[in-house]
Amino acid sequence: MPTTKSAKKALAQSEKKRSRNRHFSELYKESVKKLERAVAVKSGDFAELLSEVYSRIDTLAKKNIIHSNNAARKKSAFAKLVKSVPGGDAPAAKKAKTEKAPAAKKAPAAKKAAAPKAEKAPAAKKAPAKKAASKE
Predict the structure, then answer these.
(1) What are 58-61's contacts with CB under 8 Å, separation 24+?
(2) Can you give the CATH number for the domain in which 29 is found?
């Protein structure tokens, strides 16, 4: 057990952080289990479950519970898992399949009158360092 006041404070802080980190990790694990169960029985709304898992992973990365590269690796692996199931497409793939309405063309923006640019004055050079007087 800690004896100094600062060590006691550090212990209390680390316990609080550990509790918070475990909470978010548990939420992530629950989401992963739901997704894996849906993949195992090959039914369910994969897009919604995958979106939930992505959200949990992003939360872990944002709170520095896991590294951002670790988060990207996990997201990639889950997308691959869902894609391997017949009828399971990643959410991004579903969005690409929907037709987009043609975008209205914008009128060309009026060009601003080009104001003459002020020329920069050359930077002032430093005076050379003075040489020490030689002893003769």
Answers:
(1) 59/24, 59/27, 59/28, 60/24, 60/25, 60/28
(2) 1.20.58
In a domain, 81, yes or no: yes
2 and 10 in contact (C-beta within 8 Å)? Answer: yes
| Three-class SS state of 130 | coil
Residue 39, in any domain of the structure: yes
Q: Count the residues in the chain.
A: 136
74-111 pLDDT, tens digit per residue, is 999 999 999 988 876 655 544 444 455 566 666 666 66
CA atoms within 13 A on the CB side of 1: 1
What sign has the CA pseudo-torsion 64, 68, 72, 74? negative
Total domain count, the chain: 1
| Domain hosting residue 55, numbered range | 9-91
